[in-house]
Amino acid sequence: MKKICPKCHHANDYGNFCEECGTRLLDGEASARTESAPASEGPVYPVYGGHAPGSAGQPSTGQAYLQNAKHVSKLYFSYFADVMKKPFAYAQNTGREQFVNGLITIMIFSLIIPLMIYLGFHDYAEFIGRGAFLTIVLKPFVGYVVFMMLLVTYTFLAVKFSKVNASYQDVAGRFGALLVPFTCSFLLSFVLTLLDAKIFVYFLLIGFIGSLFTVPALVISSYTKENRTGLDTVYGTILTYVLTFLTLYIMGKLLLSSIDYLMNSSLSPFF
Fold first, then answer.
1. Chain centroid, CA 188 distance in Å
2. Would you call 54 helix, strand, or coil by DSSP?
3. Angle at the Cα of 177 (from 203 to 82), degrees rounded to 5?
4. Where are the beta strands (DSSP E) in the chain?
């Protein structure tokens, strides 16, 4: 039975959040009551602060963006907490309705390592110059996002070669859900770095290795475990690993170039 969104009344095939507006979906009888409920007369408008758009109490554009940002953040943290409870079980029921949350997870994941490097060398900030944040954080961040999206693409290709009917958004949504635990490991590593705890490196390795080897394999197997045709799951996973290693070799210099730049900038005043 389709799940009807209690907010925008969109009929969702699966998932725990609405594909259109992101609202948490009702289960069981509650969803059925919503589906049978008569539609409200006239168009439905988003409401900010109790006033419809165009009314005298409508907030400014800035306030509307702020409220929307708060709403999206609340939805994402709820999503993050739900995934952390049972990651694989949650991901198996996840598809394109979590595509945006998957992208947010990828961006958070990609930002942590550049921030750790930047903060780790904050004592040398006066020698680095104004372009340090751009070179050490923003450029590697973009590179890591590109790398992770390529990893999603390789996983999607493996799924398609297995003759599974899944869209890129479906695979990306499931990939993002399975990436959540390893993003959490990165976040723990980041906090431990701020606390100057040396065990941060273990959580960093767990997050890095898991994202490269565990997530693609789990996504592929979740789609192909009952599939009897097309490319075998093992070969699809191996293909993904080969493409990942090639990409990692090409883009792996991002981290080293950032460190080289930082070291050269910080040491140049002394030589």
1. 17
2. coil
3. 90
4. 3-4, 11-12
Q: How many angstroms separate the CA atoms of 197 and 87, rounded?
A: 27
Q: Which amino acid belongs to residue 99? A: F
Contacts of 204 (CB under 8 A, 6+ apart): 113, 116, 185, 186, 189
- The Cα–Cα gap between 38 and 89 comes to 34
Q: Two tokens at 100?
A: 């945006």
Structure tokens given for 160: 């398609």
Q: 99-120 and 253-267 helices cross at what angle (nearest 10)?
A: 30
Indicate the burial class of 119 (C-beta count within 10 angstroms; 0-12, 13-18, 19 or more). Answer: middle
Under 8 Å between Cβ of 115 and 140? no
Strands 3-4 and 11-12: antiparallel
Comparing C-alpha atoms, which of 78, 237, 94 is closest to residue 177?
Answer: 94
**Cα-atom radius of gyration of the chain, to the nearest Å?**
22
pLDDT values of the chain reduced to their tens digit, one per residue, 271 residues: 667 788 777 777 666 777 777 777 766 544 444 444 444 444 444 444 444 444 455 556 767 777 877 888 888 999 999 999 999 999 988 889 999 999 999 999 999 988 887 777 665 555 555 566 777 788 888 988 999 999 999 999 999 998 888 999 999 999 999 999 999 999 999 999 888 888 999 999 999 999 999 999 999 999 987 666 788 889 999 999 999 998 887 766 655 665 565 556 554 544 4
Contact 15, 7 (CB under 8 A): no
25: helix, coil or strand?
coil
Specify the pTM: 0.70
Tell me how far apart the alpha carbons of residues 215 and 183 are, in angstroms, rounded to a whole number.
Answer: 11
Angstrom distance (rounded) from CA 28 to CA 8? 18
